[in-house]
Amino acid sequence: MLGEDVVLYLNDVLIELGDFNLRADLSVSAGRKVAIIGPSGAGKSTLVGAVAGFIPLVRGHVSMQGRDITQSSPDQRGMAMLFQDGNLFPHLTTAQNVGLGLRPALRLSADERRQVREALARVGLAGFEDRTPANLSGGQQSRAALARMLVQGKPLMLLDEPFAALGPALRDEMLDLVTEVAADTEAAVLMVTHAPQDVRRFADDVIFVEGGVAHVPQAAGALMDNPPPALKTYLG
Ligand SMILES: Nc1ncnc2c1ncn2[C@@H]1O[C@H](COP(=O)(O)OP(=O)(O)OP(=O)(O)O)[C@@H](O)[C@H]1O
Question: Whose CA is nearest to atom 8 of ligand 1?
Fold first, then answer.
């Protein structure tokens, strides 16, 4: 039996995309920050896509907090997601983009509008409510997307290289903000990244994806200090 604090469980999962296969049999505990790393083309985005429900499984089951979501659509899975691009709708204001996290139809109550304002203030965007994304910097756009995750308050946040386009200092700021948002909402985080320094800054655990397998999460510090051969080769 799995412990009660397991938020995500991939049970004997097999994913196939054309000739590509990926296996995963692992769990993520509540509140853990997990980096997904591995060589290009190893299947990191595929793993996240399967967890999010965009890629069907050939075999196995995905559970969230004990609920089998294998057949659930992405919007029914109870996760918040952030991807590399396209996180904000260009025709909506910052406040509306965040409000979508509460209500897809955007008819917010006074209390929900207050939540949106508070979330924007929490990520350093007070006063930016009425701007559209085109009038925000890259870092501000990332902050707005994180504010949306904050109001969603889901137990799992999935991020696929959301800050790849930002410079190193800004990336560090955003990773710290993800940590704060996750702490506020007590969410676990699964984040794809290419950068070993991101792992050290952010992650409690690492899922190493390589050779057609998403390996079980291992403690980040010990793994990075003493990587097994395949990880050592990847890290260079
Ligand atoms: N729709 C598809 N049909 C067939 N093969 C696919 C499809 N999508 C991805 N693949 C293949 O699946 C493998 C894993 O791709 P994926 O994007 O998950 O890798 P990744 O580890 O995220 O890579 P990167 O670090 O370069 O972003 C690759 O070999 C890719 O070519």
Answer: 17
**ipTM reported for the complex, 2 dp:** 0.96
Give domain limits for the chain: 6-78+154-235, 90-153
pTM recorded for the entire structure: 0.93
Q: What is the pLDDT along the chain (236 residues), one digit of tens a residue?
A: 455 699 999 999 999 999 999 999 999 999 999 999 999 999 999 999 999 999 999 999 999 999 999 999 999 999 999 988 778 999 999 999 999 999 988 899 999 999 999 999 999 999 999 999 999 999 999 999 999 999 999 999 999 998 888 888 889 999 999 999 999 999 999 999 988 889 999 999 999 999 999 999 999 999 899 988 888 888 88
Please write down the long-range contacts of 219-222, taking CB distance under 8 Å and 24 or more positions apart: 220/35
Residue list, ligand 1 pocket, CB within 6 Å:
17-18, 20, 38, 40-46
Q: Which CATH superfamily is domain 6-78+154-235 in?
A: P-loop containing nucleotide triphosphate hydrolases (3.40.50.300)
